Amino acid sequence: MVDSRHFLPVLLLVTLSCGGEARRAGPVLPAAVEGGWTLASPSDAGRAVYQGPMEITVVIQTTSGQATAFEMVQKHQPQPGSLVFHHDRYFVTVSAPGADNATLNRFAEALEKAAQW
Question: pTM of the entire structure?
């Protein structure tokens, strides 16, 4: 029979040493973003839609690290009605057909501040 006085401390030690840092699957997006946007469709597989002055789609890709996300921003080819940025290991695309860059920039800055990365 196992002596519980010795088994429990060992079990606790093994549990703590194997845990490491817990990581979420991705950032938690806010229900509302400054400027009048609200989350219309929950973040699903890295994609969310915000309704407000116009519909904005957010796509978040998780990369292997911050350097990879930064490299993706550097290599991205600009497209009308969209912009990209990175936060830590996340590469983020914000798009709205017909939107001007100033509107997309304001939204992206507010989203970056409000999200839980």
Answer: 0.77
87: β partners: 90
Are 64 and 72 a contacting pair, CB within 8 Å?
no
Which two structure tokens, joined as six digits, stand for 6? Answer: 């010795």
Q: Where are the domains of the chain?
A: 24-114
The answer for residues whose C-beta is within 8 angstroms of residue 97's C-beta and 6 or more apart is: 81
Q: How far apart are CA 16 and CA 2, in angstroms?
A: 21
84-110: per-residue pLDDT in tens? Answer: 999 999 999 999 999 999 999 999 999
- Kindly give the pairing relationship between strand 82-87 and strand 56-62: unpaired
The distance from CA 90 to its chain's CA centroid, rounded to whole angstroms, is 6
